[in-house]
Structures are given as structure tokens and as C-alpha cells.
Structure prediction request, 104 residues.
Amino acid sequence: MVLLWVFISKKSCIFAVVKQLDISIMANGKLNKNISDKLSFVSFIIPEFAFGYKMGMQDAYFYLKKYGGMDFLNECWWSLHTDNPLYAIRDMAQVCRNNGGYLK
Prediction:
């Protein structure tokens, strides 16, 4: 398991746990482009999800992790990042609802 700090605007940060990453993700001291793009999208979409549902970023992260949103994000990030962020957030919330999560 690789633990990464992803810094975002306003000096706040989210603690992203990136599962199922091989230790060899770094080649010549640089992150793999695919992993870098994935981390950029995750660091963008979690704060957007938090803002959309009026919750803190840490609360949003733990909510997504508990109800399967992070697994969905990890598996489907490529298709989610090509869509409008509002639809990506809606899809993540629907996955969480299907797994027992409830948001207003």
C-alpha cells in the first residue's frame, strides 16, 4: 500500500490511500503518467464531491471509502474524468447509495 499526500488549494490537503499500486510505479524517479493523471483527478474530484454535498473533504473521503465510492473511483476514473464533473459526482453518490450510504 502506498500512502500519498495530495495537496490542493487553500493549503488544505487530503490524505489519499492509493490501493493496489505496485512499488514499481516510479521509473527514473518520476511517477507513471497514468498514475499521475489518476492522482490529479482524485485530488480534484473528492473536494468537488465534498463541496457538492456540503461536507468536509476528510468526511467525503471516509464516506466514499466506506460505501464503495473510492473503489468505483479507482476502477472507473478514466471514464469519469472525461465526463462533466457533476455527472461524475452524481455517479459516485449513486454507487454509495447502492451500498447503503445516504446523502441529502
Notes: The chain has a mean pLDDT of 78.
